[in-house]
Amino acid sequence: MNSTGGQQLLVRDTYATAFVKNFIVVMVWFLLSYINGSVVATFFKHNIFNEDPRYILFIHMVINDAVQLTVTIALFVVSYTLYTISVGVCCFFILVAVFTTRSTPVNLAGMAIERYIAICYPLRHAQICTAQRTYMLIGAIWFVSVVPDITDLFVTLATQPTSFFQSAVFCLRTNVFKDPVLLYKRQAFDGIYFSLVFLTLLYTYLQIVFAARVLSTERTSTKRATNTILLHGVQLLLCMLSYVSPSVEAVLLIIFPGRELEIRFSNYLIVYILPRFLSPTIYGVRDKKFRKYLKKYFVCDCHRLDIRV
After folding, report:
1. CA–CA dist 210, 176 (Å, integer)
2. What's the whole-model pTM score?
3. By the 8 A CB rule, do 193 and 102 touch?
4. What is the pLDDT of residues 165-192, one digit of tens each?
5. 141, 103 in Cβ contact below 8 A?
6. CA dihedral 239, 240, 242, 244 (to 10 degrees)
């Protein structure tokens, strides 16, 4: 939905195109839900993971990504089936999506710090990184993720009439939180958050690399830790795409006029769907201990077949 000269121009897909797009995203949601559900079930079924800060932070990010993916896909489907929804409902979906999106990079920083302590201070790791402190860290992650953006709701409540929340809109953040000041505030917080997370990942990576040169007996573990933090850096870059995507969309619309729907769909797949595959891959597939218990959800164990002749 574009606004041109004070008039609204509705741009919509054909029925066949809309069906294909929705079919793709729903199938992706089923696939990722099965993967994430298997990872979460593996974590809670085996006590060896419940007390390990590394896996606690990992499973928190998997659940966070699953919620974010579910909300964004629900909004995607609603945009085609209902097209407009009430502002109150839209506010709820938008805020949940924003909170879960913002908490991902902060969680990455926490996971990088845990690996840094495990490699550089192995004798104090068990004392510093306890399960209780990890859950306290998760609470702090949610606090710093929620506070900056919940103010958008308070400002909107203070500046918009009650009738606005009962009206129906196409559910976009800019259609609900309209105050231009909120845009500048959002850009400032995004810059601060990602700068701090990037510096944290860079510092922990360099410290682990330096430690690897000294700890010749722990080369394997330090190599795995550095590779993990590099993957966290890739995740961070993918997370940053959600904040630069509006600018990229604007440039692509200039280059490819009349392709707004195709550009938005491609952007949605790359920015919101692709990064969700990385979280279960980094620990669920790469980690040998976790993979040992996870593989039973994907591989049929033929040794359990009772064959009688």
Report:
1. 48
2. 0.82
3. yes
4. 889 988 888 888 888 888 888 888 888 8
5. yes
6. -170
